[in-house]
Each structure stands twice: as C-alpha cells, then as structure tokens.
Design brief:
single chain, globular
Length: 363
C-alpha cells in the first residue's frame, strides 16, 4: 500500500474532492467559456451588427458550414478536456492527447456532453500521468494510453452520463415551469451559492444544460450574490471591490464567509427574492448557451446569454419581438434589485450584531 501511495504522490495523482470537484470542474468551465460561450458571443455580435466576416461561412467540414463563432463553439469538447488536463497538472504528451478525448466524450455525450467530458477527461488524464515517462518510448505510450482510455470510456459511459445529465436538467426545468415560485427560489439560491463557493456554477449549469425559466432563475441567483456582495462590501472595499465582485466573482468573499458565515445572509436571501420574481413576474428565460446561466454578471456573460436567447427566439419565431418589459426585467433582476435588497437585509444583519464593519474587507 505504501508503494502505491508513493507512486501516486510521485505522479501528482491526488484523488480528492477538491482536485476533481473544484479544480477540474472550475477549469472545465473556463474551457467552455473560451470555446462555446465566446463562439456564441461572436456569432451574436456578427449577426446584430451585420459584420460580414463574422456571419460568413469560413469553413465547411463534412457538409457542415461554420462561421468564426461556429468554429469556436465546435471546439468546446477539446477545450474542456485540455482545461481539465491543465488543472490536473498533466505532462505535455498527456495534455495534448486530451484534445481527442474531449472531442469524443463531448460528441458521444450529446447535449449532456460537458458532464461526460468531466468524468472521462479526469480518468484519462490521471491514466496518462501514471504512465508518463515510465518507458523509453514515452512519446508513443503516453498518448496511446491517454487517448485509448479516453476513447474507450467515451464509448462506454459518455452516452449514459449525457442522458442522465439531460434527464436531470429536464426535470429541473420542467419542475420550474410547473412550480415557478418554489423552484425559482430553489434554483436561484442553490446556483447562486454555488457561484460564491469554490466550485463552478457555470460548469454545473452547462453539465445539466440548464436553460429556459430555470436558467433565468439561475441568472437571478448568481447576480444576487455578485451584485449583493459588491454593494454591501463597498464601504470596506471601494470601487475596486465593487468592480472585482460585481463584474468578476463573489468567490472573493469566501475567506470572509468562512470567518463569519452570517455575512452570506443578505446575498442569499436576496437570491431567494429575485429568483421567483424572475420566474413569476418577468418570465426571465435563459435560452442562450447553458453555461451563461451560471455566470451572473461576470463580464456581463449572463446578460449577453439572455439577450442571445431573445435573438434566437425572435429568429425562430418563438418570440415576436424583444420588448421594453424584457429589458426592464433583465435590468431589475440582474442589477437594481440586488443593489437595493441586499444592503437593506445586511443593515438588519448588522443591527442584530451578526456582522461588524470590516467583516467583508478583501485582502
């Protein structure tokens, strides 16, 4: 047993929830952002601003035409797998082999591809690390093992994993349609908390293909956390803190939350309020890329995703037009209400003596 432990340590193979559930999952979200999400944004810009280069076909593969954004989106599987390999500290030959692994897992996983990529890429990466530099023909062995394990697992488990993720995502979305008030609260609070925790809410939403009304609730929850923390911590952190949390991530407050969990009350209760408002009053839907559902106001990706969904719905005839009420709902849910409700709740928290000045100070 000690020999196995020594080998795993030498290969930097650490089987832990943090390594796989935080590091790998967070990296997967970054890979998805740099492929599918950026591709979607490029397509939206090209279409809305009528930029010929961005709307024209730049490549045709197997009869399928791709725009610039389309090419970026098509690379989501390889991008996620390489990002996971990078987070797991893969050596070069194993890391580069993850391109093929990601493509296979994402393609065979269908709409639930991101979850398939997560599982398959982790196992393939660790197997590649295990054999790396163990033979004199490393240039053959490492890629062969990494790709072989990845493709075999993609064939065996990617389809059922993809179907399971899609089934769970559909269940959440169906429940939100049937019970928009209760599910609006649940989805908003849980996804919002996931955004602030050191895990990836974006990757979770992508893995579950969370769109529609449930996606709108997720956006509301993420915005409540980001804008909420940004505003209530403004006295301690100033404009730099406002921008870094409001357009960056509320995860910056995790250290303070660990010291005093009660500072989390205001943003979380805010998400419990804005979530059902998004679903029941404004009918806010995320019909863009599912990963956008878990991004909140980070780079305004959540809002761009909602807008992209509007554009797609208008183009398909599912929506007649983008109305002033749509814009009002988006602005109120994402920016105005969190900036008003969270400080009011936090003032009550401080009045009760549960939080003190300086509790939200960022280092």
């Amino acid at each position: 047993m000690s020999g196995i432990q020594a080998f795993l340590k030498r290969k930097d193979i650490r089987i832990s929830l943090r390594r796989y559930g935080i590091d790998a999952l967070g990296a997967m979200a970054q890979g998805l952002f740099c492929s599918l999400l950026i591709g979607t944004i490029i397509d939206t810009i090209g279409t809305r601003l009528h930029i010929p280069f961005l709307t024209a076909t730049v490549a045709t593969v197997a009869g399928v035409s791709y725009t610039v954004g389309g090419i970026a989106s098509a690379m989501s599987g390889p991008a996620m797998a390489v990002a996971i390999g990078y987070a797991l500290h893969c050596p070069p030959l194993a890391l580069f082999s993850m391109i093929s692994v990601g493509f296979a897992a994402n393609a065979l996983g269908g709409a639930g591809g991101p979850l398939s990529v997560l599982f398959v890429a982790i196992i393939a990466a660790e197997c590649g690390k295990a054999v790396s530099k163990e033979t004199k023909v490393d240039i053959l062995v490492t890629p062969m093992v990494t790709i072989g394990v990845g493709l075999l697992l993609s064939w065996l488990i990617a389809p059922p994993l993809g179907r399971a993720a899609m089934a769970l995502g559909r269940l959440i979305m169906m429940a939100t349609e049937l019970q928009p008030f209760l599910m609006g609260i649940a989805v908003s609070v849980l996804v919002g908390m996931a955004l602030t925790l050191p895990i990836s809410s974006a990757a979770i939403c992508a893995a579950l293909a969370l769109t529609g009304l449930a996606g709108g609730a997720a956006v509301a929850g993420c915005c409540a956390q980001m804008i909420g923390f940004a505003v209530i911590s403004f006295p301690e952190n100033g404009w730099g803190g406002l921008v870094s949390q409001g357009l960056g991530t509320s995860m910056l407050q995790m250290g303070n939350i660990v010291k005093n969990p009660r500072v989390w009350i205001a943003p979380t209760l805010t998400s419990a309020i804005t979530g059902p408002l998004a679903t029941c009053v404004f009918g806010l839907r995320m019909n863009g890329a599912p990963v956008s559902s878990g991004m909140g106001t980070c780079g305004l990706v959540g809002q761009i995703g909602v807008y992209t969904g509007w554009v797609n719905d208008v183009a398909s005839g599912a929506k007649a037009a983008i109305t002033a009420f749509d814009w009002l709902g988006l602005i109120l849910i994402c920016f105005v209400l969190p900036a008003v409700i969270a400080p009011a709740i936090h003032a009550a928290v401080r009045k009760l003596g549960w939080a003190q000045p300086g509790d939200l100070k960022l280092n």
